[in-house]
């Protein structure tokens, strides 16, 4: 829009007028074309009426960022499984995050983990948002202290067991914990910048909370971001579907959305593996 010769209002009016003309003469708008499809967890969009900026995986400057790959989200024993389990199972989120870790190990692509931890002093906060209140009430991601790992192993705050070989390999960067949803309260952006990263392949939990908040903050900080749509999942309750809410925003904000299979292929192609 900044480079458009049309003022914003005129530009929007031009789009509306053009769409109306196409309809009058029988030319289908792009989103109405026979080969159109909205983005879903397992399939990227086709001719959905929105621009396709694209995202090129590079061997220099591209990294995978995974939010909250922890038991309280991803294990059936975790405290949130009752609301996230359906979405995780349908998307094969656990397996797909695992595939991203595996291809990163195979190719040497950098990986950054942005975890969620609450220490005892965090429970003294004077005000909280809706799901902050819930997370604190159910003891989600609780650890006794930032300086003490007693009781951490196998707890809800610990990594999913099958991810430990990838996270604890001496190469993966584990940032300080984010405290609400986005990386504004941790050192992820610093770690990415110091590593020369400007492009992020984003996955992890939970889709409309930490994952979406990371996407928004990273884009605001000048990173190019794509989201792996089946390597995340969201809470589903009687009245709300967190995953569906996030999918719309992923598509409208990120440079690209795609599934794990295609993302893994793109990484291997970039590294010629």
Explain what the structure shows:
This protein has two domains: 1-32; 62-271, Isochorismatase-like (Rossmann fold, 3-Layer(aba) Sandwich), CATH 3.40.50.850. It is 38% helix and 10% strand. The protein contains ten helices and six strands, in the order H-E-H-H-H-E-H-H-E-H-E-H-E-H-E-H. Helix 8 (207-220) links the parallel strand 4 (199-204) and strand 5. Helix 4 runs parallel beside helix 10 (260-271) and helix 8 (207-220) packs parallel to helix 9. The longest helix has 17 residues, at 8-24. The radius of gyration is 20 Å and the shape is globular. Residues 1-31 form the signal peptide. Residues 62-251 form the Isochorismatase-like domain. Pfam families: Isochorismatase.
Keyword list:
273 residues; alpha/beta; Rossmann fold; 2 domains; 38% helix; 10% strand; globular; Isochorismatase-like_dom
Task: Please outline the helices and strands.
Layout: H1 8-24, E1 62-67, H2 71-74, H3 81-91, H4 93-107, E2 111-114, H5 130-137, H6 164-167, E3 173-174, H7 188-194, E4 199-204, H8 207-220, E5 224-228, H9 242-253, E6 256-258, H10 260-271
Parallel strand pairs: 1-2, 1-4, 2-3, 4-5, 5-6
Helix pairs in contact: 4-10, 8-9
Largest beta-sheet details: 6 strands, parallel
The share of residues in helices is 25-40%
Structural class: alpha/beta
Mean pLDDT: 85
Sequence of secondary-structure elements: HEHHHEHHEHEHEHEH
Task: Give a concise summary.
38% of the residues lie in helices and 10% in strands. The protein has 273 residues and is α/β, with parallel strands linked by helices. The chain has two domains: 32 residues; 210 residues, Rossmann fold (3-Layer(aba) Sandwich).
């Amino acid at each position: 829009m900044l480079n458009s010769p049309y003022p914003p209002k005129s530009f929007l009016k031009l789009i509306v007028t053009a769409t109306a003309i196409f309809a009058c003469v029988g030319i289908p708008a792009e989103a109405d074309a026979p080969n159109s499809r909205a983005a879903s967890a397992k399939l990227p969009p086709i001719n959905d009426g929105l621009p396709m900026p694209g995202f090129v995986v590079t061997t220099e400057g591209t990294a995978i960022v995974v939010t909250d790959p922890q038991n309280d989200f991803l294990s059936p024993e975790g405290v949130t499984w009752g609301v996230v389990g359906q979405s995780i199972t349908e998307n094969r989120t656990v397996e797909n995050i695992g595939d991203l870790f595996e291809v990163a190990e195979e190719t040497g692509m950098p990986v950054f983990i942005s975890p969620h931890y609450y220490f005892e002093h965090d429970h003294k906060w004077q005000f909280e948002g809706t799901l902050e209140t819930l997370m604190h009430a159910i003891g989600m991601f609780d650890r006794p202290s930032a300086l003490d790992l007693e009781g951490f192993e196998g707890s809800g705050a610990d990594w999913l067991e099958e991810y430990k070989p990838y996270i604890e390999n001496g190469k993966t960067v584990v940032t300080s914990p984010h405290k609400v949803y986005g990386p504004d309260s941790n050192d992820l952006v610093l770690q990415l910048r110091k590593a020369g990263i400007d492009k992020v392949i984003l996955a992890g939990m939970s889709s409309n909370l930490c994952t979406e908040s990371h996407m928004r903050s990273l884009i605001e900080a000048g990173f190019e971001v794509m989201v792996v749509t089946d390597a995340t999942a969201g809470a589903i309750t009687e009245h709300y579907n967190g995953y569906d809410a996030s999918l719309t925003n992923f598509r409208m904000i990120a440079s690209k959305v795609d599934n794990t299979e295609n993302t893994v292929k793109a990484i291997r192609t970039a590294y010629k593996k």
